[in-house]
Write a structure and sequence with these properties.
Elements lengths: L2 H16 L4 H11 L7 H29 L4 H33 L15 H23 L5 H7 L5 H14 L7 H11 L4 H33 L6 H31 L4 H20 L2
Helix pairs in contact: 1-2, 1-3, 1-10, 3-9, 3-10, 4-7, 5-8, 5-11, 7-8, 7-9, 8-9
Length: 293
């Protein structure tokens, strides 16, 4: 893959990974338009590095807020550690059977397929993106119409509670395997639907991302080496390192810009516009599939 293709994909990844519009859907479409196959071991390895760049962006952006909301006292640290552990555990419990089911549906000859085959299936991505769009649109409109009485404000400012953490963890588990079902989009929407305060739900959603991303990266690396081994391909880190570092830099920068955009729209009651965008993007992806991409 050329350096310019890496830069384009890194910018797309950085923006779409942290906006609630599904990075996978946008990266796959961008790659298809550039005639790049993201299911190959080398390109899958590049995606792992791009995800690393966006994880660093999340840490850098939310660090000060987390120091106040999560690390302000030992009681807060313990409370949030329990919540994130339960959310992550539920994500894993939900993800595992979905992973096996999708592998079975994509497989042939009695052999389960690797879920990464979804990278080339726009006909799966479009409906997943549309479902995410419906959830974001509903949650955004419902939250924007929430009464703003003093009692409602005190209730909304209650912080992240168990109901929020449980629903957000389950939604994250559903989102992980499906390209097009945005993790940030569905988890933040879930938190809004349970009555959480916008800023705290946003912070917690991305704290969940940071907690689970190292595991997700390790999982993806395992997939890369497994796929390469079955295909008789040797994965070399050296040739991937230079474009990977360039990709990390650009995905980090784009991710920081995306987080500023997301925070502004979420806090100003414009969350539903991301849902409208997802529905429109799903239509475009469906049309591209119809054209033969």
């Amino acid at each position: 893959m050329s350096v310019w293709h890496v830069i384009v994909l890194a910018i797309v990844q950085g923006l779409a990974e942290l906006l609630p519009v599904s990075s996978s859907a946008h990266v796959i479409v961008a790659a298809e338009l550039m005639h790049e196959n993201m299911s190959t071991p080398a390109n899958a390895l590049l995606l792992v590095l791009l995800h690393t760049g966006t994880m660093f962006a999340v840490i850098a952006y939310f660090w000060r807020r987390w120091m106040d909301e999560i690390f302000g006292s030992w009681a807060k640290v313990l409370h949030y550690a329990k919540l994130i552990f339960v959310s992550s555990l539920l994500s894993g419990i939900v993800f595992a059977p979905i992973d096996k089911l999708v592998g079975h549906l994509l497989g042939s000859g009695g052999h389960a397929a690797d879920i990464e085959l979804l990278f080339n299936k726009l006909n799966w991505i479009a409906p997943a993106l549309a479902l995410a769009g419906v959830l974001i649109l509903y949650a955004g409109l419902r939250e924007a119409r929430r009464p703003e009485t003093e009692e409602e404000k005190r209730t909304a400012a209650r912080g992240v509670q168990w109901g929020d953490a449980i629903l957000m963890g389950i939604l994250q588990g559903i989102a992980i395997p499906f390209r097009g079902f945005s993790r940030s989009g569905v988890t933040i929407s879930g938190g809004l639907l349970t009555g959480g305060e916008r800023r705290k739900i946003e912070s917690y959603s991305f704290a969940m991302v940071v907690a689970i991303t190292p595991l997700a990266i390790a999982w993806e690396l395992r997939r890369v080496y497994k796929t390469a081994h079955l295909a008789g391909i040797t994965v070399h880190w050296g040739p991937a390192l230079t474009p990977g570092i360039i990709g990390i830099i650009f995905s980090f920068t784009a991710g920081m810009l995306a987080l500023r955009w997301l925070s502004r729209w979420l806090e100003n009651g414009k969350w539903h516009w991301f849902g409208i965008y997802c529905l429109a993007a799903a239509g475009v992806i469906g049309y591209l599939y119809h054209l033969g991409y």
